[in-house]
Specification:
- The structure holds two protein chains of two kinds.
- Chain A is an alpha/beta fold.
- Chain A contains 28 helices and 35 strands.
- In chain A, the strands form eight sheets. Chain A has a seven-stranded mixed sheet. In chain A, strands 34-29-33-30-32-31-35 form a seven-stranded mixed sheet.
- In chain A, helix 9 runs parallel beside helix 16, helix 9 crosses helix 17 and helix 18 packs across helix 20.
- Chain B folds into two domains: about 35 residues; about 110 residues, Alpha-Beta Plaits.
- A three-stranded antiparallel sheet of chain B has the order 2-3-5. In chain B, strands 1-4 form a two-stranded antiparallel ribbon.
- Chain B contains five helices and six strands, in the order H-E-H-E-E-H-E-E-H-H-E.
- Classes of the chains: A alpha/beta, B alpha+beta.
- Strand 6 of chain A pairs parallel with strand 6 of chain B.
- The structure holds iron/sulfur cluster (4 copies) and FE2/S2 (inorganic) cluster.
- One iron/sulfur cluster binds next to helix 2 of chain B.
């Protein structure tokens, strides 16, 4: 560990630490533009010059380019260094267009800060300024190239770190240009990070264009709830409107970056048609009146038809607080336990995944980056857990091998071996790998037996043998392998099989090696709080049809979005005596409900969520709620009346309203919610002791207890050769519920495609991007086909996209005979 | 006795002298040009830099100068300026609304000093009392004038190289844009 002196302060840093980094640890912030922790050094800007007084280097050097070494004595304040840096900032400003007043970076701009700290004020150079044309880079990012100082951060992030090629440097010398070859939307789903990473205002967030200055914003460390990873963000609000999401560094989750879904989904919270007034039977009412009505009618129904006739429906976007309160009131009132998952298999797989994770097995996303072999099964990283793709890319950059076993035409910003097999085959492959691996390890043979599972459904194709053997070899040869397992499209037993393999690997390599991706932001919390086996929404529908359920309280959930049979759902809901909906989104259920109780978004009331590795993350509200000033005033100046009432400010967090509906009037403060949470699950007791800013994991300590295996028979692959198995999948945009309401994302979204294999498409005469029509139970579906050779045969991949009426599908799991797919005339 | 008499005479003389002197001064001033201004009938022109009611000026093209950069509201020591910036339909940054609470303003002039576009300017108008304190809250309509105030020429957009006003490379002191697809220097 080299020991060096910087500005008379001594510090010892790990080998390979740059001097600029060592200084930062001492609290000395050496000016910099091109150096960035995640991107490393480039030596492009010359801003970080310091004077080396003693040691292996002498004189003026770039502190970002030199590794800290023993005996170095460095001065950052040496006259020569200061003068040099002043010159650097002066020449960097030489071509600056002086448009800070209209630049959204102003107020949070590294270039401004360093110009001021460098003491540069007036432009002395009399020559003309270099200019550039700007480009259209899509709906998310505005481009203003005149402001560029050529630090190369953008291209290093875009191409090296994130692995996309369509943005980069062009030209030479003083004319270097950063952009695309021609105008067009950026291809990377991580492009939003350019806004954070560019030290100037070249790339700015179009969704918050011209809305505010940093110093006026209410900024709160926040959490992304648009997939199960739970990345860290900073949310900013102004005038009761969320205006910007930025990435926040989190050592164990997302690192420095977030994906575009997480960054641009927030406008759902500002929608003008958000439910803001409570409604009873179509009439506006105050929240208190509506709560009274709901509470009265629910009690009435419980009294007449028994408490079992009242069912609660929640979703995995509900906060832990809400889920805990719903569990509490359902128990005490005798109502049905909240159904969180839309389908029973999803509930089952999530519960299995959660019960198999423990402290020794679970890897965080950061740890995943140092893996040297990764086997990802049943997951399409970019679409289901976007930042996972970026983490996998970092592993890939360090030469990790990656195998993806998935039926979809997976594309990702790294090279991988794609084992394109149908969902039914994935489990079998995993078991075969586990068996082969444990057979090879004589001493751990006993372990292999202990976790033996029933033979996977359906025989495996012969051509898979060699690939499985290859995977087994690579697993054996790797130091730090990791198994990544999805829970959406796989069969019921697959999470268990993945966990078996991971347990074996843990014994062999003694390193955590299991990473699950769960269906939603709080799926983990939902199964921790669920009764077991939990009920899913499809059971509720069945009970409504049989007349067992008469009243439904739907809390922050939209069954219309998830339930695969829209007609059946409509019929069922029509049978209800009472449909009460609590939500902050203008969902179809809110539109039909007899009683509507609006709630706050997580921006307005905060909340806790548990991500897929069991990390409890809590956030405080960003603003106090109420209708955005912009909407109250109709775009002009705010009303000139003064009142203590905030328009739309009576709305509360769902858990508070739920408590009121259940008749608890004195348990509504923050302390009692922590108490309720702790009582509902002992793991949450720590929420009371740990400050909100810190996260913790609710994972059991492993112990060597053998896992409790639930023997689940998997659904077999379709026997008939002339049908395609429907695989419903998520897409980066358009399938996640909250972001689907964001106008920014709606504008950027592209047309959804239904994918099938070339060999399945050819006999039907279907070519890529042809319109096809699929006769589903609930009617015909016209959609463009994607035809790919890089996917499994025998499957039809349908995204649950909001623009696609996939809810015509009818009962799932579904098979579609070839005869029902045809080319449509439409062009 | 004689002594007494003479002192009375002396006193009388002094009194007369005092009276006459005062009258003389009064008389003299009666014929002097008065310096009292007949306010409010007569309003003395104040120096151009005296600081009173604030205006928002326009550029030589007649468009609002203010670009809603928030510098004035940031610098204002009494936080009496508030606004909301937005993108105008033509892409230009502007204030959707702009409000100054003159009941709080101390006419320090820092806002004018901070303004990069010369939009906000203090005028010598100091006399605008109201019968209702709410009337001191001026909206953008009340603040906007139809002239450039102290500077009739300056136009921020002629200097800043944005394409909102004029193509790239056509602003003051600019080279034509780099052609990224050419090898010519
Ligand atoms: S565009 Fe921004 S990040 Fe890229 S080189 Fe220029 S200043 Fe650096
Ligand atoms: S990866 Fe998931 S949690 Fe992370 S920013 Fe994207 S949507 Fe949000
Ligand atoms: S003159 Fe001073 S107090 Fe008045 S608005 Fe300007 S900065 Fe604020
Ligand atoms: S400083 Fe000038 S341009 Fe900026 S908001 Fe104030 S008046 Fe407008
Ligand atoms: S930060 Fe060292 S040269 Fe740019």
């Amino acid at each position: 560990m080299p020991r060096l002196v910087i500005d008379d302060l001594q510090i010892e840093v790990p080998e390979g630490t740059k001097v600029i980094e060592a200084a930062e640890r001492l609290g000395i912030m050496i000016p910099r533009f091109c150096y960035h922790k995640a991107l490393g050094s480039a030596g492009a800007c010359r801003m970080c010059a310091v004077k080396f007084i003693h040691g292996p280097f002498k004189g003026l050097q770039m502190s970002c380019m030199i590794d800290a070494q023993d005996g170095m004595v460095v001065s950052t304040t040496d006259e020569e260094a200061v003068a040099f840096r002043r010159q650097v900032i002066e020449w960097l400003m030489m071509n600056h267009p002086h448009d800070c007043p209209v630049c959204d970076e102003g107020g949070q701009c590294l270039l401004q800060d360093e110009t001021v700290s460098g003491g540069h004020g007036l432009r002395r150079y009399p020559g003309r300024k270099r200019t550039y044309h700007d480009q259209y880079l899509g709906e998310f990012i505005a481009h203003e190239m005149n402001r560029c100082i050529h630090c190369y951060r953008c291209s290093r992030f875009y191409q090296d770190f994130a692995g996309y090629r369509d943005l980069g440097p062009m030209q030479i010398a003083n004319r270097v240009y950063f952009g695309r070859f021609r105008d067009g939307p950026l291809e990377s789903p991580f492009a939003g990070n350019l806004v954070d990473i560019c030290p100037t205002g070249v790339y700015t967030d179009r969704s918050s264009r011209y809305k505010a200055r940093r110093w006026d914003l209410q900024r709160v460390p926040f959490l992304c709830i648009h997939c199960s990873l739970g990345c860290s963000t900073v949310a900013s609000a102004r005038y009761r409107e969320v205006v910007r999401i930025e990435a926040r560094f989190n050592e164990s989750v997302n690192g420095h970056f977030i994906c575009d879904r997480g960054r641009f989904a927030y406008p759902y919270a500002n929608l003008a048609d958000r439910p803001r007034r409570a409604r009873v039977d179509g009439e506006d009412a105050s929240l208190a009146e509506a709560v009274r009505a709901a509470s009265g009618r629910l009690d009435q129904i419980s009294m007449n038809a028994g408490p079992d006739a009242v069912a609660l429906v929640a979703s995995d976007r509900c906060s832990l607080e809400t889920l805990a309160v719903l569990k509490r009131i359902s128990r005490e009132k005798g109502w049905r336990h909240p159904a969180v998952f839309p389908r029973p298999d999803l509930e089952h797989k999530t519960r299995r995944a959660v019960s198999r994770l423990d402290r020794r097995l679970a890897v965080s996303m950061r740890e995943l980056e140092s893996a040297d072999f990764i086997l990802a099964v049943g997951i399409d990283p970019v679409h289901e857990a976007p930042m996972l793709a970026l983490a996998l890319r970092q592993a890939f950059r360090e030469d990790a091998g990656i195998v993806v076993m998935d039926p979809r035409p997976v594309s990702a910003p790294f090279d991988f071996d794609h084992v394109a097999i149908a969902p039914a085959e994935i489990g079998g492959c995993l078991s075969r790998i586990t068996e082969a691996l444990s057979a090879l390890q004589a001493d751990s043979a006993a372990q292999g037996k202990e976790t033996r599972r029933p033979e996977a459904a359906g025989p495996l194709r012969a051509d898979l043998d060699s690939r499985i053997a290859g995977i087994v070899e690579r697993l054996r040869g790797s130091r730090n392998p990791v198994i990544v397992c999805g829970t959406d499209i796989v069969r019921d037993s697959t999470p268990d099989r993945a966990a078996d393999l991971a347990r074996l690997l843990l014994q062999l390599k003694a390193r955590p090696c299991l990473f699950f991706v769960l269906p939603g932001p709080n799926s983990f919390g939902a199964v921790l709080l669920a009764e077991s086996p939990g009920r899913s929404f499809s059971d509720v529908v069945q009970d409504i049809e049989q007349g067992k359920v008469k009243a439904l309280l739907v809390v922050e959930s939209d069954p219309f979005k998830n339930f695969p049979d829209r007609e059946r759902l409509e019929r069922a809901l029509d049978r209800l005596d009472l449909l009460a909906a609590m939500d902050y989104l203008p969902t179809s259920v809110v539109g039909r409900a007899h009683i509507v109780l609006p709630t706050c978004t997580v921006f307005e009331c905060g909340g806790s969520f548990i991500n897929q590795e069991g990390r409890v993350q809590r956030v405080e509200p960003v603003h106090e709620g109420g209708i955005p000033v912009h909407q109250v005033s109709g775009g002009g100046h705010p009303p000139r009346v003064f009142s203590h009432e905030v328009p739309g400010g009576e709305i509360e967090a769902a858990w508070r309203t739920a408590l009121e509906v259940a008749g608890y009037t004195n348990a509504r403060d923050n302390l009692s919610i922590l108490k309720i949470m702790a009582e509902e699950h002992p793991g949450f007791a720590r929420c009371r002791d740990i400050p909100t800013s810190r996260s913790f994991r609710v994972l059991p300590d492993a112990g060597d207890r053998p896992p409790v295996c639930e023997e689940t028979g998997d659904r077999a692959a379709p026997e008939a050769a002339d049908t395609l198995e429907v695989v419903l999948v998520d897409r980066f945009f358009g399938t996640e519920e909250l972001s689907g309401y964001s106008p920014v994302i709606q504008n950027a979204d592209s047309e959804p495609l239904v994918f099938l294999h070339v060999r399945d498409a050819e006999p039907l005469g279907i070519a890529h991007s042809d319109w096809i029509s699929i006769a589903l139970e609930g009617g015909g579906l016209e959609v463009r086909a994607g035809v790919s050779a890089q996917m499994a045969e025998g499957v039809l991949v349908i995204p649950r996209h909001r623009l696609l009426e996939w809810q015509k599908l009818g009962p799932v799991p579904a098979q579609i005979p070839f005869g029902r797919i045809s080319r449509a005339g439409k062009e | 006795m004689a002594k007494e008499e003479s002192s009375i005479a002396k006193t009388a003389a002094e009194m007369v002298k005092g009276l006459a002197g005062s009258y003389a001064v009064t008389l003299k001033h009666l014929f002097r040009k008065p310096i009292t201004e007949q306010y409010p009938e007569y309003k003395k022109p104040l120096p151009a830099r005296s600081r009173g009611r604030i205006i928002l000026t326009v550029d030589p093209d007649g468009d609002e100068r203010c670009v809603a950069c928030y510098l004035c509201s940031a610098v204002c020591p009494t936080s009496c300026i508030s606004m909301e910036s937005r993108e105008r339909d033509d892409g230009r940054r502007h204030a959707a609304w702009f409000r100054i609470n003159f009941a709080r303003c101390i006419y320090c002039g820092l806002c004018e000093e901070a303004c990069p576009t010369l939009a906000i300017q203090l005028t010598p108008d100091f006399e605008f009392c109201k019968d209702d304190i709410l009337k001191f809250v001026y909206e953008k309509e009340d603040l906007l004038v139809n002239h450039g105030g102290r500077n009739q020429e300056y136009n921020f957009y002629r200097h800043a190289g944005l394409s909102e006003k004029g193509e790239k490379g056509t602003h003051i002191n600019e080279k034509p844009p780099v052609d990224v697809k050419s090898n010519m220097p």
